[in-house]
Design brief:
heterodimer, A: mainly alpha, 2 helices, about 90% helix, rod-shaped, B: about 400 residues, three-stranded antiparallel β-sheet, 14 helices, disordered C terminus
Amino acid sequence: MSAPATTPEAVTADAERLRAETDALALDRARLADLERERDAVRSLNATLSGLAAELPSQATLDQIARQQATVSALRQKRDALLARKAGLQ
Amino acid sequence: MADRRVARAVAGLGDVFTPSGLKIPTVCTPSTDFRADGYGRLRGYVRLCNPGGAFISVQKNGCTPDGPVPTSEEWAEIDRQRAAAGYETIGCLVTKKSSNFIDVAARQTAVVTAPLDRYLPGWQVAVDLILSPMIPILPLILGALNSAIDAAAAGALYLIPVPVVGGVLQQTLVHEVLEGGRMLAKAGVAVPGLLGQALAPVGLTIAKATATAKTTRGSVLRKIGAVSLEIAQGLALTASIAGGVIFVAGAIGVLPASIGFASAINAPASGGEFFTGVLGGEFATSLEAAASDFGALSLAIGVLKDAAVTTSTILAAKDAADAAKRGAKLARHAAEAQFRALVAEQRALDAEIARLEREIAAAPAPRTVAPMPAPARAAAPVQSMSNGARALLAAGLALALAEVLE
């Protein structure tokens, strides 16, 4: 800590210096608060994104659906053919 | 070139309405809603609609003279009235500056621009895209992504959400809006229902530029490895290369009944404000609601990079991701339900086929009809004769010929 000022000029200079330091500290605090907010926001976003993929339909499910659609489509055709054949018998 | 495209777009979209009274149902107003949702960047909002199925939203920073921005309920009522009048929402395109919009949108998307710039100088413009599940969505997604990439590369702020609502949309209209003819053509090779695979080439191409996304201060944003999300990341990186910021929130349809939407915003680094209010507020909610109505897969990712990224944009991404997460869950359930339904249908078809086969097997043999006796003919066809008959005929003909010759 510096020695106390003993002249009006020195007191004034000290006061200005302290004011500048105070302003700088305030700015630092504000910047720190900004950084903390951003950090929290990023953490929050990342946490959400990390769970997002798990919520999607799995590729296995999609593949199953595709195969099942093909199977059902073939069965529909077979059914339609049988219906036509049966109609021809009547 | 731009003027011509704009003119074509106007013709395709129908009449353009302006807040100064030229057929636009003016709802342009100072926004308290967007401020209330914590993002506070959007101050004014107006939607332009036309009988062709589009409406265009116009947004502006700073107060506008016409009253408060509609609330969600008011928007719903506006949309209801619009629907009753035969309008259909088809899209959303957002740009940062009208001047950029003129340059970029006219070049990339062919959305109405000149009238808006003329009547609303300095305004941001949005055209909502809401597509019917009855039309092929993949080409539109590809087109949207492509346009988003182009716009991002050009430094524009760009948003293309493609949620789903009921109703049938004129595909030509979408074509006009997205300026998507080239992508529509490319999409012919795609396989609906396997959208991820279909998009893979696009994603792989874009993903070449992929790097870890970071915020302004260096915070690393998580990357997700899914193909469709690689596309999102690729978009973000494409935008960042141009010195901008891009936010991607997308939903990719994977089921026949589902559709997806893809959103991308790129704010130029020099442009200052970012569209935080749109995706994070009621907009994301409305997208989710629209998608969930159809059990659509709805996924979102926010990829933020470069100077314009702020905490509020990250929070907006978080909101959108939350909404998308819920949509993804709905989509997963829808996929599982669809699979169960297909299995049930297979069983039913198996049973029906077995029954039909039994019935056919048990059916009496078809009664055979005795051939009618052939009528007596003076000269039967040669090919039906026996060899002896042929010999006799030949002998007879020879005799007859001999008689004639004599």
